Amino acid sequence: MADPQRTVANSMGTETFCRLQEKIEHLKRHKIQNKFLNSEIYQLTKLWRNSSEEEKGLLMKCAYLEAKNCQIESKYLVVLRRLQESKGLDSSQQEMVKRLIEDSLQGDKKDGFKLNPVSEYDDYGFKTIPDYEVEDVKLLAKIQALEIRSNNLRNNEMVDKPLRTRWANYLASRPLDQLAPSPELKGLIRCGIPVEYREQVWRWIVRTRTQVSRKRNPNRYQELRKHCEVSEHLASRQIRLDLHRTLTSNKHFSSPTSDAVQKLQRILLAFSWQNPTIGYCQGLNRLAAIALLVLKDEEDAFWCLVAVVEIIMPQDYYSKTLTASQADQRVFRDFLAEKMPRLTAHFKEHSIDHSLITFNWFLVVFVESLVSDILHRVWDALLYEGTKVIFRYALALFKYNEEDILKIHDNLEMYQYLRFFTKTISDGR
After folding, report:
1. Taking all residues of the chain, what is their mean pLDDT, rounded to a whole number?
2. How far is residue 246's CA from residue 44's CA, in Å, rounded to a whole number?
3. What are the start-end ranges of the H helices in 86-134?
4. Residue limits of CATH 1.10.8.270 in the chain
5. Are 299 and 278 within 8 A, CB to CB?
6. What are phi and psi of 385, to 5 degrees?
7. Any residues with CB less than 8 A from the CB of 89 and at least 6 apart, and which?
8. Backbone phi, then psi, for 126, in 5-degree steps?
9. Residues of 99-116 as b/e, b for ≥16 C-beta within 10 angstroms?
C-alpha cells in the first residue's frame, strides 16, 4: 500500500486479464457460430447438389420424352402422307386425311411450349428447315423438322456432350498449331468436329496442306488482290453472275450487298489469277462459300479453296474437260455395282444414269445436297483424309435409302426422288 506504482501495475494487469478473458469468450462464441454456419453451408450445398442432379435428371427425362413424342408424331405424319397418296380411299376419307394434315401443319403455331425448339438457322446460317410452297412437300418439311428435333434432343446427351469432352481432353494438352496427324485425331475427326473447335481445326489442316506455297510467298493473297484491282479476269462476269446463286438458303448470302458475298467475290477473283489453267469453274463458288462460313477469315478461306482444288482433288477435276471428275463417276459406278448389286440392277432395269445426280455430289462435295450438320462432317473428313471419303459417303447415302429406291418403278419418279432424298436424311450418326 505504501508503493503506488505496484498498485497501478496490479490494476493494469487485472484489466488486461479481463480483456483477454472477454476476447477468449468472444472467440469461443465465434467458433461455435462458425461451426454452426459451416454445418448450414454443408447442408445447403448438399441440398443444392441433390436439387441440381434431380433437375438434370428431369431435364434429360423431358428431353427423352419430347424426342419420343417427336418420333411418334413423325411416324403419324408419314402414315398420313401414305394415306394421302393412296388411291383406295373414297372422297370422305380423303377429305378427313386432308383435314388431319392441315391440323398437323398448323400444330406448331398452336403449341405454346417447346423444351428445345429447332431454331430457324444453325450455327453457320443455314435454314434448319427448308421453306416449301407445295403443300405435299410442306408435310415432308414438317416430318423433317420433327426428326431434327428428335435427333438433337437424343444426341445432345448421348453423342454431343461425350464428343465435346473427348475433344476438350485431346486439345487440352496440345495447342492447335502443334497438332500432328495421328489415328486418335483421325478417329475424332470422323466423329465430327464440334462447332466451337471446327474453325481452329480446319485452319490447322488447311495451313498444313498449303504450307509449302505459303512459305514460298507469304503475301500471295494480298498480291492477287492488288492484281485483281488493276486487271480484270475473263471469268469476272461469270463469277459475278454466280455470286447470287450461291447458298441461297443461307442468311449470310441472302443479300447481294452482304459482307460474305463481297468476300466471296474477292476470293474467287483471286483464285482465277492464282490458277490460270482453271480460272473459274461453276461449283468453285460453293466450295469457297463453305470455307468462308467456317473459317470466317477471307485469306484462310482462299487457302482452303486452294487446298481442295489444287491439293486434295485430282488434277483436271475442275478443268474445262472435267476429265478427272468423269473418271471418278466411272470408278463410283464400279463401287456401287460391287457394294449394292440389287440397286445397280434396279437402275439398269429402269434406265437410270445415277451419275446425273452423283456428278454434282463429287464436284461440289455435297454442298446443297446434305443438311448442314452432315455436310460439315463430310468436309471435316475430306480436308483431313482426302477424296476417298467422298466415295464412302456417296455409297452410304445410297445404302441408307436403298430399300426406298428399290420400291420405285417409275423412271421420272425415281429421278425426282434421287434429286431430293439426300436432304431428308437428318441423323448425322
Report:
1. 83
2. 56
3. 91-105, 107-110
4. 198-312
5. no
6. -105, -25
7. 83, 97
8. -85, 145
9. ebbeebeeeeeeeeeeee
pLDDT for residue 134: 46
Residue among 368, 290, 371, 278 nearest 325 (CA): 278
**Looking at beta carbons, which pairs linking 72-81 to residues 24 or more positions away fall under 8 Å?**
73/104, 73/146, 74/143, 74/146, 74/147, 74/150, 76/104, 77/101, 77/104, 77/139, 77/142, 77/143, 77/146, 78/143, 80/104, 80/139, 81/136, 81/139, 81/140, 81/143
Instruction: Please give the Cα distance from 269 to 234 (Å, whole number).
Output: 10
Are the C-beta atoms of 345 and 333 separated by less than 8 Å? no
**113 pLDDT exceeds 50?**
no
Measured distance CA(253)–CA(264) in Å, rounded: 9
How many CA atoms within 13 Å lie on the side-chain side of 306?
28
Residue 183 vs residues 101, 266, 283: alpha-carbon distances, Å: 49, 37, 32
pLDDT tens-digit map of 164-194: 888 988 888 777 777 888 999 999 999 999 9
CA 427 to chain centre: 11
Query: Hey, which CATH number is domain 198-312, 1.10.8.270, 3.30.750.24, 2.40.50.140, 1.10.10.410?
Result: 1.10.8.270
289 pLDDT above the threshold of 70: yes
**The CATH number of the domain covering residues in 323-424:** 1.10.472.80
Q: CB within 8 A of 92, min separation 6: which ones?
A: none
Residues of the chain with CATH 1.10.472.80: 323-424
How far is residue 131's CA from residue 128's CA, in Å, rounded to a whole number? 10
Q: Tell me: the pLDDT tens digits for 232-263?
A: 888 889 999 999 889 988 999 988 889 999 99
Give the separation between CA 80 and CA 91, rounded to whole angstroms.
15
Q: What is the pLDDT of residue 232?
A: 84
